[in-house]
Amino acid sequence: TTLRHVKKSVTAMDVKIWQQPALGKREEAAAQENPEHLKLPVSPSREFVSRALVSSRKQYEKMYEQSMNDPARFWGSFANDFHWERKWDTTKPICRYNFDLQKGPVFVEWFKGGYTNICYNALDKHVLEGRGNSTALLWEGNDVGSQKRITYSDMLKQTCQLANYLRQRGVKKGDRVCIYMPMVPELPIAMLACARIGAIHSVVFAGYSAESLAGRILDCQSEVILSCSGVQRGNKLLPLKKIVDDALQLCIHQGNFRPGTCLILDNNRALPRNKVSWVPGRDLWWQDEVKSCNTEASVEWMEAEDPLFLLYTSGSTGKPKGVLHTVGGYMVYAAVTFKFVFDYHPGDIFWCTADCGWITGHTYVAYGPLLNGATVVIFEGVPTYPDPSRWWQIIEKYGVTTFYTAPTGIRSLEALGDQYVTKHSRSSLRLLGTVGEAINVKAWLWYHRVVGEGRCPIVDTWWQTETGATMISPLPGAWPLKPGSATLPFFGVQPVILDQQGKEQDGPCEGYLCIKKPWPGIARSLYGDHKRFEETYFRTWLGMYVTGDGCRRDPDGYITLTGRIDDVVNVSGHRISIGEVESALDSHPQCAEASAVAVDHDVKGQGLYAFVVLVDGVTPSDALKKEIMDCVRREIGSFAVPEVIHWAPGLPKTRSGKIMRRILRKIAANQFDELGDTSSLADPAVVEQLVDSKRSMR
Ligand code: WTA
Questions:
Q1: Is the shortest distance between the CB of 485 and ligand 1 below 6 Å?
Q2: Looking at this predicted complex, what is its ipTM?
Q3: Best substitution site from 462, 471, 547 to test ligand 1's pocket, by max atoms within 8 Å of Cβ?
Q4: Residue 600 annotated as catalytic
Q5: What is the pTM of this model?
Q6: pLDDT tens-digit profile of 96-124?
Q7: Which runs of consecutive H residues, i.e. helices, occur in 355-418?
Q8: CB-based burial label for 689 (10 Å; 0-12, 13-18, 19+)
Q9: Using a 6 Å cutoff on CB, does residue 300 contact ligand 1?
């Protein structure tokens, strides 16, 4: 196999339709039928408001205005809550930037000249201020009964040991370290250890295939891999070390690159050591190596704009992008959004179900909560093991006060029945949150009524890997909620909604969501490819950050996200590039051509539907279908495998050879009378054949 770069180029603006209105008319009607649901919008209770950090829209507006008019004072005062080894240069503006490509390269700088360390602020600071005995992590393993409690001082010691070990292996400031691990305490510890010594971590979600892992290791040339023998998730064993071995083989063949160190956590709950293959010298057991290291480690003071981490994410075209975040701005923005969006009070038990392999896990499992000295629950397993009440059982067990998850999880558990939820007490819950995709009204109402017993506000947080942390979200005590709406921008965030011509619109409207000014958490670049960073986010409309999402604004100023406007789909909250999926499908030797579209999916939000044209003379079969699906599993990961493979006689193309995805989307959704004008197609007969074959599939 070769590292595949996506061949097809689809322009972002090719797809101009609003793919998936968050508030479907049908759902709205269904909600209205139930009289209980008529009381919309939903206001926070008086009790919630009485202790909320921001308790009115007026208070928010005042703070928001200050954040826009006097960013130095606003962000400076939050930044001052942290330790800075040297303060940023206060004689210069707190933020310098250029968003306008016509005026020169795009750049953003916050707190320039300041020196700090995010690990120091997330751990040492709390220990030094006497909070060492408070709980940092509550870890719940896959099996009921496996658990660990880690205090801030324990966590600091373990982080220092690993930091010292990495230094011993030659890792220094600016080096990239790839982390491919399950949700065990050592995962956030690994991130923090890197941050402590100034190494740039690149966490790869432990559901990605060897191909994907190899691509990510090669792109940033990480000499060191931190991983784990394997992990049991539900009933399934994931042999992580085996995947690492395969990935490293690929790295040698594809990039002539041979990482020198693989530090492997021995997870004998999943796999005994003797079942794990080993390359002596390169492979080392974490527990054996790290335990003898000193539990104190010096801190590498980092300039505010030094890189903190890379996180690869999918774009509409091309290979995955290594989104780069820097130390100072990310630290401040992650911490401040955590505090206000989750209305954090000391003593809260916070649980974000995201994996640290995604940005949500970076910002709201690791950095945001720890910077606030919070107690975080992390869970290794899956919500349905040993049965579908697991999440609610964990909430009861640890007294979780704030629960943050993805709509897809909510929908899948809703479908299984209320009894799994109500069997456990949720009386500790105060606040709920969602992230990653639009939440439909029905799921929102269920989450609110059944999970939160009608008591807990829901923060529907919109943001992206590139934005670092939450951008649009309710502040839960400050204004009424509307199901499906992310409501208003966070402090310092200036959203604008453009029409098709790129003109800014006022008042209620619908259009492309862009952001006008830099906030501290914005990504600074794509690793090794600043040009691509500029082209992806700053070319379509000059002078602003283009999010790739569509949205609408209602008369209250509330913003509702309406879905991606480029060829990125969101399956179960996982961001997947259509181009990458197509390229994986194409890699099968018997596939002549393939195209994939997003279709609505009850549980996953969106699913992938693939049209595959076979090489002449090849007969379709179930075995072939499986092989083709396996190509996607191998090249990307299981989560990207299409739901449906439709054997297509051909694809509808314009005369210039461009695939008409609009038509494919309609066919996939059985909307045969909405195919629109097909006269510009090179061969309109293809459409009839596709419709016929679709009808016979049903
Ligand atoms: C989508 C995840 C609607 C959106 C933090 C965005 C959402 C992409 C929401 C980023 C939301 C995220 N409502 N859509 N509350 N949150 N999205 O980079 O399309 O994995 O552009 O970051 O997810 O996904 P990413």
A1: no
A2: 1.00
A3: 462
A4: no
A5: 0.88
A6: 999 999 999 999 999 999 999 999 999 99
A7: 359-361, 368-371, 390-398, 407-416
A8: middle
A9: no
